[in-house]
Amino acid sequence: MLLAALTVAAVTARLGLWQMHRGQEKRALQAEMLERAEAPVLSPEALARSPLAAQGQWYRRVTVQGRWLPVAPVFLDNRQMDGRPGFFVLSPLQLDRGDVVLVQRGWVPRDQQDRSRLPALPLPEGEVLVSARVAPWPSALTALGADAPGPIRQNADPEALAQLWGPALLPYSLQQLAPSPVAAGAAAMAEQTLQRRWPQPALDVRKHDLYAVQWFLFSSLTVGLYVWFQLIRPRLARHTA
User: What sections of the protein cross the membrane (predicted)?
Assistant: First the structure.
């Protein structure tokens, strides 16, 4: 019994320490992300081409020049901004250096009467400047099956988008931060319609603190139960007898 109690107490205490360590790692990563967001604007020529290099540039600001590919945008469903349901609008931008990158152009609310009704968001023609920040691929949500053909998608699958739009995409996305300076017209109105109050990266550090507390409580409870049932209670029984 003593060996079993010591083993359980040690293992649960070690798990609590591991959760504390994970929390510290995520706090350091969150501080690094905020530092990147405040860093000088990244040069377009320095944009990553590989997944590993892209991770080192996440949340860095950049202003790129290129041309929107003349394809229909994709609307990512079940995305929120300021607590409201709607769509993230995705379009491919061909950079001047030739690469094609996925741009999260902004967010639009869902039509409450007809979910399938989508706004017309024409793209500016010719060369455009896009002020953005480097970001991971849009997060994947739980899906019951494959996305149906059409502009509304549950997730932005890289292979599916490459088949839809044609060229392969870089292994990251750009979150547009401000409207592109374009001439008046439908494209200019679309730039103003899109909302771009992107949430700050959240790493859910608090859950590790809660898990650590739970494991430490389990460890303490194991020691307490052993002391009560193996030491205190037998003595009380002998004293009563």
Answer: 210-229
SS3 22: helix
CA dist., res. 156 & res. 138, Å (int): 7
Beta strands at 74-81 and 128-135: parallel, antiparallel or unpaired: unpaired
Contact 198, 138 (CB under 8 A): no
pTM higher than the cut 0.85 = no
81 lies in a domain? yes
Q: Are residues 166 and 217 in the same domain?
A: no
102 and 215 within one domain: no
Q: What would the pLDDT profile of 67-109 be if each residue is shown by its tens digit? A: 999 999 999 998 988 888 899 999 999 999 889 999 999 999 9
The C-alpha atoms of residue 37 and residue 40 are separated, in whole angstroms, by: 8
Which residue range is the domain that position 234 belongs to? 2-27+204-240
